[in-house]
Amino acid sequence: MEIIYQSTRNAGERATASEAILKGLASDGGLFVPTSLPAFTVPFTDMAKMDYRQVAYEVMKLFLTDFTEEELKHCIAKAYDSKFDTEEIAPLREANGTYYLELFHGATIAFKDMALSILPHLLTTAAKKNHAEEEIVILTATSGDTGKAALAGFADVPGTRIIVFYPKDGVSPIQEKQMVTQRGANTAVVGIRGNFDDAQNGVKAIFNNKELAEVMRGKGFRFSSANSINIGRLVPQIVYYVYAYTRLLTAGRIKDGERLNVVVPTGNFGNILAAYYAKCAGLPLGKLICASNDNKVLYDFFRTGTYDKNREFILTTSPSMDILISSNLERLIYKIAGDDAEKNADLMKKLSQEGVYDITPQMRERLADFYGGYATTGQTAAAIRALYEKAGYIIDTHTAVASSVYNAYKESSGDQAVTVIASTASPYKFTRSVMSAIDAKYDSMGDFELVDELARLSGTKVPQAIEDIRSAEVLHKTVCDKDKMQETVERILGL
Predict the structure, then answer these.
(1) What pLDDT shows up at residue 1?
(2) Separation of alpha carbons 434 and 430, rounded Å
(3) What is the CATH number of domain 92-110+232-462?
(4) For residues 23 and 18, what is the distance between their CA atoms, to the nearest angstrom?
(5) Sign of the four-CA dihedral 62, 64, 66, 70
(6) Is 116 exposed, middle or buried (0-12, 13-18, 19+ CB in 10 A)?
């Protein structure tokens, strides 16, 4: 069955999978969603005998139906190769009775690698399929992890350029160092004086600027995105939930058909939306537990049915989740509105103009799969310390938000279902916050002293991604005001 994609804001704007990947964002500012969700065809007991690459093919072929078998397998082989530092690309670790799906063994030690390793290959294949002659300019806003993973994925890829905007004072020191030391003649990194929402809104505005698009076309450029607003980012994320389920089957921890709860630390809502799509396609998932930090706009939404971004933006120890506009939630809103693009467009207009919208009681009923919780910065630190003391297992701040929320959920609900927590980043990426949570005595140490101490405590090897930046030269020094993003893009591209 061929899967066609349409805009969440206009039922008339349709595209094949490759066209949707190439465009990144619909022309009306909406996001591309499948007009119907496919169903898994291969039994999970059979997929349990497959490796990650084989599972990836069985899942992705259902969503990317205009890619040939050869094209898709080529993209998968290029993406999921020796750049991962473990034999198993997404290993499951049991700690204190819960399974942690480690999604951080790629080149930039965060879960974004799982999708951003393959996106450049999907995108360049899509360009060839659609006879796109222009150079593709990847324009991306990052709250810390997407930026580096996208830069690493697209560095020196022929026919592409990449420009990444990040909040200058809103990422961890190691996240920033990873980005500003990125090599590649086609890469540009810009810090903005503002927060992630400012960066994301600026990127969307540039995407939606029709006059700029014409100028770009005249110079031989076209924009695309590496954010999870691109369906080519979202589909690969579905894979690892299926993979986790099949590994638990193999280990005898669950029976075929048994429901599995999933906990996801959530900012832009893409990662948990992938779990939801997996469930809609037939993966036996129970509760989808959405874990927020102090910026608890999603927690409030699930609790009240009101999405309200009009609140203080809080900088936390889990910066990749410091977000007040969760772009991918739009895809869920479209779904619970009964695939009604007009209704969704009205709500997004309210969000843009007033910063708030309310969903109907009927729409709220369709959110029964989800549970929203949040953890404060103090609770996050306590979760890191508790897991280390009980199990000797060290997690990063984002995973700790999920761990804290899950413990509270389990206690209040009594739900004893087998549960997987998406472990979204290596603790080495947030060493200062992680080590301070374990013991305040580490506060006085330097960043790389902390790295070595973390290696000693955890009994793990310092990832190559961290070793690479110990003495790396800063190559990207551009900083701009949030209202100067378009000018900066024009200057970088020589328009």
Answers:
(1) 80
(2) 6
(3) 3.40.50.1100
(4) 9
(5) negative
(6) buried
Nearest Cα neighbor of 313 from 355, 345, 349 is 355
Cβ atoms of 419 and 261 closer than 8 Å? yes
Nearest to 462 by CA among 471, 451, 470, 446: 451
CA angle 210, 214, 217 (to 5 degrees): 135
Locate the domains of the chain by residue range.
92-110+232-462
**Which residues, in sequence order, are CB contacts of 11 under 8 Å at separation 6+?**
341, 342
Strand-pair category, 478-481 with 187-193: parallel
Residue 416 pLDDT > 90, yes or no?
yes
Length of the chain counted residue by residue: 495
Q: What are phi and psi of 102, to 5 degrees?
A: -80, 105
Question: What is the rounded CA–CA span in Å between residue 318 and residue 295?
Answer: 10
Amino acid at 449: E
Output the pLDDT for position 471: 86
Rounded distance between C-alpha atoms, residue 486 and residue 183, angstroms: 23
Angle value at C-alpha 463, between 461 and 464, nearest 5 degrees = 125
Q: Which residue has the higher pLDDT, 83 or 258?
A: 258
The pLDDT tens digits for 103-158 are 999 988 999 999 999 999 999 999 999 998 899 999 999 987 788 988 998 999 88
Please, which residues have CB within 8 angstroms of residue 357's CB and are 6 or more apart in sequence? 306, 307, 347, 348, 350, 351
Task: State the amino acid at position 313 in one-letter form.
Answer: F
CB atoms within 10 A of CB 31: 25
- Tell me the C-alpha distance between 277 and 328, whole Å: 12
Taken in order 82, 166, 397, 370, the sign of the CA dihedral is negative
* Tokens matching residue 440: 């305040």
